Amino acid sequence: MGLPEVVQRRLAGAPIVLDGQTLAPETQLMLRLKKLARLPSAERLPVPQGRVVVEHEAAMAGGTQPIGSVRGLAVGDLPARLYVPTTAAPEPAPLLVFFHGGGFMYGGLDSHDATCRLLAEQAGVRVLAVDYRLAPEHAFPAAHDDALAAYRWVVQHAASLGADPQRLAVGGDSAGGTLAAATAIAAAQEGLPLAFQLLVYPAVDARRATRSLELFSQGFYLTSEFMDLANESYVPVVAERDDIRISPLRHDVPAGLAPAYLCTAGFDPLRDEGEAYAQALVAAGVEVQLHRFPDQIHGFFNIV
Questions:
Q1: CA–CA separation, 22 vs 130, rounded Å?
Q2: 291 belongs to the catalytic site
Q3: Which of 6, 14, 127, 253 is 20 to 30 A distant from 278 in Cα terms?
């Protein structure tokens, strides 16, 4: 927000300390301002209106990030955008296929435009953001089918993207992290090349019952109501919520899974399941970097 930390703390109020963690004053102030504004949460609106709210919040949080170039394209039948950093690696270059979050109901290329720009610039890699069908119009496994189809397309058309097929990665945040994790699993099972997976506070257990869910499911942006709505909209058949494509934490880790960077937020209801998934990957011999941002909430990745 550009304010000195002491001013942020004054405006935000007394520090919020839970589970041995202190919420960042800037984040606390943002949550307080959101509450004072009495803006409706997306999950309390009809889905079309909720999508407008999500896009508005994303635009406010993301702003405009510099980038070398952006171009729209089609990945099969799916809309996509290719982000090339200002200082681009020589072709063929590394490429990250990115899936946006939003509970499988919200979000799109616009909601994560700033995020993809920042990823491309900071990592110095090409980023291909791929859109996918949303619930409730398209229930499970539509989004997962789209994500995997997109990755298969990228493997086959890497040269047209200036990408090295041996240096491809998948990534996503929240529900997008679920899609990335499931795509990485499918790639291992099918023998597709995949060098890396970037999992940002992923949802990996649709039947979650964790301590972080109990502690942080109210007042810290992502709510239990939102998660319930996401489950009901995307996976209305309860028995399907154990499927590896929606709850990979409930399954054995396949051989040959790509190395992963997984990050969680200290005040996120999804924190514990994400960290449990990282531990499961490590136990299975997968190379994993796990990073918790202890003073942050779900969604911080989009506040760039």
A1: 35
A2: no
A3: 127
Q: What pTM was computed for the model?
A: 0.95
Burial readout 182-218 (b: 16 or more C-beta within 10 A, e: otherwise): bbbbbbbeeebebbbbbbbbbbbbbebebebbebbbe
For 143-170, what is each residue's pLDDT tens digit? 999 999 999 999 999 999 999 999 999 9
Indicate the helix (H) or strand (E) that contains 94: strand 93-99
Could you confirm whether 146 is annotated as catalytic?
no
Candidates 100, 112, 144, 298; catalytic one: 298
Phi, psi of 291 (to 5 degrees): -135, 120
Q: What is the pLDDT of residues 54-93, one digit of tens each?
A: 888 887 776 678 899 999 999 999 999 999 999 888 889 9
Torsion of Cα atoms, 303 then 48 then 198 then 262, to 10°: 70
* Phi, psi of 39, rounded to the nearest 5 degrees: -75, 140
Q: Pick the catalytic residue: 131, 268, 272, 295?
A: 268
Class of domain 55-302: alpha beta
Q: Cα dihedral angle (164, 166, 167, 168), rounded to 10 degrees?
A: 90
Which member of 111, 174, 212, 217 is catalytic?
Answer: 174
> Does the annotation mark 174 as catalytic?
yes
Segment (H or E) for 84: strand 78-84
| Every domain of the chain and the residues it spans | 1-39, 55-302
E strands in 100-247: 126-130, 163-173, 196-200
19 phi-psi bin (left φ>0, alpha ψ -120 to 50, beta other): left
| 167 phi/psi in degrees, rounded to 5 | -130, 50
Tokens 């531990």 belong to residue: 279
